[in-house]
Amino acid sequence: MKIVSRNEELLREALSCIPQPSSRASLASCNKLIRFEDISAAAFKIQSGVQKTPCMYSRLSKQYGMEIYLKKEFLQYTGSVKERGVLYLLMSLPQEQQRKGVIVASDSNFSMAVAHHAAELRVPVFVVVPGSTAPARVRTCRDYGAVVVSYGTTAKDAQLHARRLAQENGYLHLEEEDSAVYLSGLGTVGLEMYEQVPKLDAVIFPAGGHCGLLAGSAAALKHLNPHISVIGVESESFPVLQQSLKAGHPTDDQACNNHHFYGDVSGVCFGSNSLQLTGKLVDKVVAVREEDILISMLRLLEYERATVDAEGAIGLAALVAGKLPELKGKRVAVVICSGNLELHLLQQCIARALTLDNRVCRFSLVISDCPGDMSKLLEILAREEARVLDIKQERTFVTSELFTVEVVCTVETRDKIHTAQLRNALLERYPTTAWTER
Fold this sequence. Notes:
Layout (H helix, E strand, L loop, with lengths): L7 H8 L20 H11 L8 E3 L3 H4 L2 E6 L9 H10 L3 H6 L1 E4 L3 H12 L4 E5 L5 H10 L2 E4 L4 H15 L2 E3 L5 H17 L5 E5 L5 H13 L4 E7 L4 H8 L24 H10 L2 E5 L1 H15 L5 H11 L10 E6 L6 H14 L3 E9 L4 H11 L3 E8 L9 E9 L3 H14 L4 E2 L3
Parallel strand pairs: 2-10, 3-4, 3-6, 4-5, 7-8, 7-10, 8-9
Antiparallel strand pairs: 1-2, 11-13, 11-14, 12-13
């Protein structure tokens, strides 16, 4: 059954003022009107190559006062929603170009998706990365089937080398742009969510530098039901999408953070197509703090057993931070789009999130260096049901009276209320207790 488009005029208006792209060797030259039929065609073509991920009711619903459904795109083979756009893009290449191969320069989710799906389609694939790339990322791309080339010290060095290799060997240099083909593939997320969750009131997507998922899915959702609110979420540290929408064109002068924690959410919004579609079809874009993202990661790990990165957690962070009070009592879907967090970062993020959530705290106090005084402190901690994570004693450099010991203790508590109870109990017994503020 064919669904006749009701929003085609809106989409056409959104894209009518887009300038023609430059004639470089990329798929951006295929830009055209993004129609609902294009997204439907993409869904049909990629259905055997990507997962139709679940969109499940979350235990977090009661905590935040709304019906929350999580679209678990981090369950894709490479851990990222980018597979949808990449697979449709690769399948749309001419056979001659598929024979010659493709090349990409970065260690992003986009590159890993290209490495996997190009290898599956038997398309020669080359990934150029700077020398500073984490060994785990290099190993992953090789495991997927790509030839990985390490070159230079910066991402710019790798890109220049990739373009040079593409020109010399006839490879197609792929970048994460907002061609109609790529956006149509990403838009299949919106199509699936509409089918999986009836009577949706709102859908929350990650935004930021690469807002193709937001734009493509908005095109699908607004066609199917114009009353569904489509909301984008980006970081307060680099609100590139909000500033680009305000300026009316993609801005490239943002002070973006290149730390791997942020992934694609910290990049520059390159695409005019995505920007125009977002301006016309997206109802709201909000920004959240880094602290909110970390707590969102913690909530997803605890309640959903989902290990995600900043891009995957940023949508839920808007609910954690209370940025969308108008959604109370509504049925809301949140896209958890990526789960590619490096192990050393995962450990740091969870430890920091527990501190921010007032569940790991540290205090110091001075007690007499006499038998039994330490046991009395431990008795108080046991009575208050605090779990001791670390305890240290300092005798040599104590500046208080002689024959005393400074004790620095790190403990785990249940929540903010439990932490306050422990603090009061310690102050009652040890009035000079110093609490380390987070």
